[in-house]
Amino acid sequence: RYERIEVLKGVGMLAFGPQTIGGVINYITPDPPEDFEGQLALTAGNRDYVNARASLGGGGFLVDLVRKQGDGARDTLELQQTDFNLKYALDIGDTQALTLRGTWLSEDSQVGYSGLTEAEYRNFGPRYGFDQNANFDINRYGVSATHEWSPSEALALTTSAYGFVFERDWWRQSSTTTDTQCGTAFRDARLRGERVDFDACQSVQGRLRDYDTFGIEPRLRLGWTAFGLPSELNAGVRAHWESQERRQINAASATGRTGTLAEDQRRETRGHSGFVSNRFELGTLAIVPAVRVEHVEYERRNDLNGSHGADGITEVIPGLGF
């Protein structure tokens, strides 16, 4: 599924964002093959575990499909997940290349939000399941396009545009082992390690989330001579937008999917950033000064009561590597 994984440390992290203190992990997918080829892998096990992967490529196309399903570590943790990826690479003459990608991830799992109490674990063991009406349902659709222009070995301009939509609905009857969504008697029985029937709890809460993200980022790499020293300049800018819709619906039955609207918020973020770094070669020593500028504007609106707030921040983040 991945050709390799890069881990980037040091001042070069400033090329990727402000929240990269520990490093940057880059997952590299394989290049589509020119000749026709395919792979099929199937793994199966107990607890209805199935993990299947099929890939097919040729002529610049690569299609990859993964299907996972199983009963999970507890008796009420069933999982079904489908992951589809499409990649297409096209050379445009001798100096340009275009790469297109499309992804779709779907998951329908019976996963709750809380774990076992100590008494439940002690009395019933680690496979004990309880929140059988919980449901975690997601769909993620993503597309991206990368254009590369390299008229010489010393000059390259790469422009990437991306966007994805992520839909997540999580219904559950217990958010912690001590909450009282199903009543204090229900909670106390769990703390004592007694079996409870979540079908008898006339409540289920849905945390419903929708995320939209898109952006564009051109990057320039230039080999040149600075102050008589061999050097490589790297620079780029990025415009990035995000929106998040948050709703919570409280239903009055164990399996309900409609009810009282308890939360209705919208959050939006707009980020504009740029970075520049230059690598100076002094024989066996390289010196790399870099700087990144981030400007972020964000706002939040509560549609239940009409409240609204907005703010912004601009930061300059310098770096120096040896």
Strand order of the largest sheet: 3-4-5-6-7-8-9-10-11-12-13-14
- What's the SSE pattern? EEEEEEEHEEHEEEEE
DSSP, total strands: 14
Helix content: under 10%
Principal-axis shape: globular
Which ranges are low-confidence, i.e. pLDDT below 50, for 5 or more consecutive residues? none
- State the major sheet: 12 strands, antiparallel
The number of distinct helices, counting runs of at least 4 residues, comes to 2
Q: Which secondary-structure class do the elements indicate?
A: mainly beta
- Mind telling me the C-alpha Rg? 25 Å
The N- to C-terminal Cα distance equals 35 Å
What is the mean predicted local confidence, pLDDT? 94
Please indicate the percent range of residues in DSSP E strands (runs of 2 or more). over 45%
Q: Can you tell me about this structure?
A:
By secondary structure, this protein is mainly beta. 5% of the residues lie in helices and 63% in strands. It has two helices and 14 strands; from the N terminus they run βββββββαββαβββββ. The strands form two sheets. Strands 3-4-5-6-7-8-9-10-11-12-13-14 form a twelve-stranded antiparallel beta sheet, with no helix packed on it. The protein has a two-stranded antiparallel ribbon with strand order 1-2. The protein is globular, with a radius of gyration of 25 Å. The two termini are 35 Å apart. The model has no long low-confidence stretch (mean pLDDT 94).
